[in-house]
Amino acid sequence: MGINAALNQLKKVPGVNGFLNSVPLSWKAAARRRVDSFTQPSKLELLVAQASQTNDLLTRMLYEQAFSTERFQEPKRLLKHGFKVYSQHDEDGIIEEIFKRIGETDGYFVEFGVGDGIENCTTYLLLKGWSGAWIDGSAECFEGIQRNLKAFLDSGNLKALYSFITAENIEGLFQRLCVPKEFDFLSIDIDRNDLWVWKALSSYRPRVVAIEYNASFKQTVSCTIPYDANAIWDGSNFSGASLKALENIGIEKGYRLVGCNFTGVTSFFVREDCVGNHFAEPFTSENHYEPPRFFVRMPNGHRPNFGPVVHISPLLADTGGEFALNGTGKGYREL
After folding, report:
1. CATH 3.40.50.10300 matches 71-288
2. Is 85 left (phi over 0), alpha (psi -120 to 50) or beta?
């Protein structure tokens, strides 16, 4: 814990705030300058920050160059709608655009491979009032979920389960979490066995599926690495499934490939009965493939963090247009 974080915790101790209010302003200012002298960034930290700003600038230039092309401007293509709030890349914006087009039903999600809850495809949905379930097989990440998302776990907006995920146990894990047979959104990101686990998920029919693909395999080869329930990603490009393989599995399961994100990481599938005329055809890997642009870091201001919020909604017209505030800060509440 840093000095500033420790001071914030200290202020919560009964009696401390009263004492601090009695301290002369000049003493407080001197103490603040002293604390700041110990918390100034090092030369290395400043260099890293400058490099980060340069990356943000290059990302913006790359975006603008790509989005000016005819392909990116096609009205039914999802790419230009991408943005990052809590997703790893631009998935948050693409997911939002998909549901703008097809509508929401239960506002329920399931995601497995969620990390510590600060960076994934469904934390932004929590911010928007959705509910759902997470599964992760990392003890460290699960501790992070319990710490970072405690308010939402306590409120019941979020369920979380600690388990390694395999094709053999996935439906049993869904049953333990009481996942509905049909729900709005499923996100799969387990870095290796993604295709095999999706294929095994036969009793559940989410309307939209986001699943990681291996852009290194390009867009025409239909292949995946062999299934190994106990294996984990070794950090190489020999991992996961090609986009064409996922396209073929999607067709088998009744889904259509409707797009990929800009960095070539995540593919998006919509259930056939929900597709309509909302998305760019043909629904093939040749049409929707994006190459690996893993070097592109999506900018979104300060470092990510998460906590309880209070939703504020406008009252009806006969109230004079004032705003109503309702909520305790313990999780999300729709007003």
Report:
1. no
2. alpha
